[in-house]
Design goal:
The protein is mainly alpha-helical.
Length: 293
């Protein structure tokens, strides 16, 4: 595998001299490589920006934000104008809950390269966190409108997920008409995301959340919620959001032992997680309501 991988990077290196990084292909390759493979690559190719970007993306996928930050910083040392590296640092800042700094950097990235679509997805997540659900919808639609060929698979899939999640929040806080118009758009978009990446933890979490939060008449199902959310934490044991949702599911089932177990898991992974804080404070900003079967 490594022989073909090194050839792939070599071709990227030659292309980048004239055209910059092929970020779509690098994002898609990152989804298939392990940090160990990236580290082995970097041992022999310390000066390849593509390798640094790949390593940063893989570290992000594995929730290793410090290592990702170091890779993106190394890229900026080689090219201070790199939009890919600036986006990577903005994504790290978002995960570190520094919303203001992340937003400023993302706006700079988009101004420098209006067609760097990962920046729009990260900004959409920020909008969602700030409860600007209409803003999240607009950004998600902008990415989706580019079509699959102009966006990497993961971020294209996320455009459906963010759209669905934001529409669900708009429906939950609106009246009957809003629930009809916005709520009915949630599951179809989640299913489109599932068709694109059926094993994505983000997709599994989105479906699990829908089946937990939706009323039975709209397709809600506690058992389906458990199925998808347990798959999510099995695929990614560091996914705090899924642990919180699982805790809420078991709270709805009045299984307090499992409720506490999964809340503790979320706290262990990310004590500042937004859904965790939402549940602990009882503010229910992001739908921490309980439901009955």
């Amino acid at each position: 595998m490594f022989k073909g991988f090194f050839l792939f990077i070599f071709i990227f290196s030659l292309a980048s001299l004239c055209f910059g990084l092929d970020w779509i292909s690098i994002h898609e390759m990152a989804d298939a490589l392990s940090p160990a493979e990236i580290e082995k690559l970097l041992e022999s190719n310390q000066d390849i920006s593509e390798g640094l970007y790949l390593s940063g993306l893989v570290y992000l996928n594995r929730h290793k934000e410090f290592e990702a930050k170091e890779a993106f910083k190394a890229m900026l040392e080689k090219d201070p104008q790199s939009v890919e590296a600036q986006w990577g640092l903005a994504e790290v800042l978002r995960r570190d809950k520094d919303i203001e700094a992340s937003g400023k950097m993302l706006n700079k990235v988009i101004e420098a390269d209006p067609q760097f679509w990962p920046a729009y997805i990260t900004l959409a997540y920020l909008k969602y966190t700030q409860a600007d659900f209409d803003g999240a919808v607009r950004l998600a639609l902008k990415v989706r409108s580019q079509g699959r060929k102009r966006v990497d698979l993961s971020n294209y899939t996320r455009s459906y997920l963010i759209f669905a999640g934001a529409k669900g929040m708009i429906a939950s806080t609106g009246g009957p008409f809003s629930k009809l118009i916005n709520g009915t758009q949630v599951l179809p978009n989640l299913k489109k995301a599932e068709k694109l990446q059926p094993d994505s933890v983000a997709v599994l979490f989105g479906l699990g959340s829908f089946y937990f939060l939706a009323p039975g008449i709209a397709g809600g199902s506690i058992e389906k919620a458990i199925y998808y959310l347990e798959r999510a934490v099995e695929e990614d044991p560091l996914f705090a959001d899924a642990y919180v949702r699982l805790a809420q599911v078991y709270k709805a089932k009045e299984d307090i032992a499992k409720y506490r177990h999964y809340l503790d898991k979320a706290k262990e992974v990310d004590p500042e997680n937004e859904l965790l804080q939402d549940e602990k404070t009882g503010m229910c900003k992001f739908n921490c309501v309980t439901v009955k079967e």
